[in-house]
Amino acid sequence: MSRKSFKIILWITFLTGTVIFAFFTPEKTIETYLLNILIAGVYTVTIALGNGMVNSYLSRHFSWVEQTKTRAILGIVATILVNFILVLFCNYINLIVIQKREFTGFFTGNMGFFNWLGINIALLISAVLHAKGFIEEWKKSTRKEVVEQKLIARSANAQFESLKNQLDPHFLFNSLNVLSALIDENPHQAQHFTGAMSKIYRYVLEQKDKELVTVAEELDFAQTYCDLLETRFEDSVSFRFDVAEQDLQSFVVPLSLQLLLENCIKHNFATSQNPLFVKIYSENGFLLIENNLQVREQVKESAGIGLSNIVQRYALLTPENVFIEKSADFFRVKIPILTQKTAVMTTQNPHESLAYDRASKRVKELKGFYGNLISYCLVIPFLIFVNLYTVPQYHWFWWPMLGWGIGLASHAFQVFGIGRHWEEKQIQKILEKEKNGNA
Fold it and tell me: Is the dihedral of CA 97, 99, 102, 105 positive or negative?
C-alpha cells in the first residue's frame, strides 16, 4: 500500500467514526468515540484493502486498454463477490463480536437491512475505484500514443527536410554537367542555357520547401526543362506531354518530373539514328514518365539520389506507392497524383486512423456506462433510505430500482454484449467492400 493510500484510509476512518459518533451515538464518551473509530477502521481498512487487491490483481493480468470487455466483466463479478464477503465479515465483527448481538438474527430484521445497505455502499465505493482505474489507464494510453505520434511526426519531418535538401546540390551538379558539355559543343547554346538555368533554379528554390505542388505547375517547369534538353541534344531527344486536363489541379511532389527526366537522360544514350523518346502522361490516378530503353554503359556507379528521393518523399506523404516498371523495350515510373494536400504530420494510414476513432468512441461508451452505474449506486440507496425513513410500510423504492436496473442492464448489454460484435462485423464488411471497389 502506498503512503498516499494509507493516509486516505486514515482520514476516511477518522471522518466516518466522528460522523457516526456525532449523529448516531446517543452516549457521548471517550470510550464510545474510540469504539466508533475502531469500527470505522475495521470497515474502511477491510473494504479498501480487499477492493484494492482485487483491482490491482485484475489490472496486472487484464489490461483496460487491450482487454476492455474481459476486464470489465471480471471486475463486475469479482467486485460483487468480494464486497459481499467483506461486508458480511465486517458486520459480523461489528454486530456479533463487538456489540454482542445474537447470530440468529444476522440475516433478518435490522441486521439484514444493515448487511444489504453495507453491501450497496461497498459496491458504490468499488465501482468508483474501478471507474477511476479505467479512466487513468486510458489517459496513460492516450498520452503515450500522443507522445509516440509526435516523435514519429518529428522524425518524418526531419527525414522529409533531409530529402528536400538533397535537391539543391543534386540539381545544380547535374545542370553544371550539362553546361560544361555545352561549352565545348556549342558556346552560343551554353550562353542561352545559362540564362534559362537561372530561371529554372529559381523555381527549384521556390518549390523545394513545399510538400506538394499542382500537376500544372510541375508540367510547366518540366516543359521548360525539356526545352533546354532539346536545345542541347537537338533531334536526339523527343518529349511528348499528354496529361488529362482533370488531373492538372491535383498534386505531386515538387521536382519529381525534373528528377525523372534527368534519370532518362543519364541512364540512356541518345543519337540522331537512335533517338530517345520520353512520354509524360496520366492514367488511372498516376502520372507516368516512360522512355524507350537504350541503356548507357555507366562509367561510374550512379548515386541513385533521384528515384530514391521521390520514393521516400511519397512514402512520408501518402500510403500510395511509386511503381517502377521495366521491360526489354521501355522503362516506366508511375507516381501517384494526389487529390488533396497531405501534411507530413499525417503519419497514420486510414486503417490506423479508423482504429483510433473507434477506440475513442469506445472510451466514451465505457465512461458513459460507468457514470450510469455510479449514479445508480448513489441514488438508489438514497431513495431506499428516504422511503424507509418516511413511509416504511410502503416500499415504493422497488419501482425506480427495477426500472433503472433494467435500463442499466440494457446499457451494459449494448457496451459489452453481442450487439457490439455484430456492429463491428458490419463495419468491417463495409470497409472491405469499399476497399475492393476502389481497387
Answer: negative
Cβ neighbors of 401 (< 8 A, separation 6 or more) are: 380, 383, 384
Per the model's pLDDT, the better-predicted residue between 422 and 247 turns out to be: 247
Query: Cα separation of 222 and 279, whole Å?
Result: 12
**Are β-strands 276-283 and 237-242 bridged in parallel, bridged antiparallel, or unpaired?**
parallel
Of the candidates 156, 159, 157, 87, the residue with the CA atom closest to the CA atom of residue 118: 87
Q: Identify residue 152 by its one-letter amino acid code.
A: I
- Whose cell is 550539362? That residue is 178
Residue found by looking up cell 458513459 in the block: 368
> Is 168's pLDDT higher than 70?
no
**Radius of gyration of the chain from Cα atoms?**
38
pLDDT of res. 290: 94
User: Whole-model pTM above 0.70?
Assistant: no
- Helix 305-317 vs helix 256-267: angle between axes, to the nearest 10 degrees? 150
93-124 per-position pLDDT tens digit: 888 888 888 888 888 887 887 788 788 778 77
335 phi, psi to nearest 5 deg: -110, 140
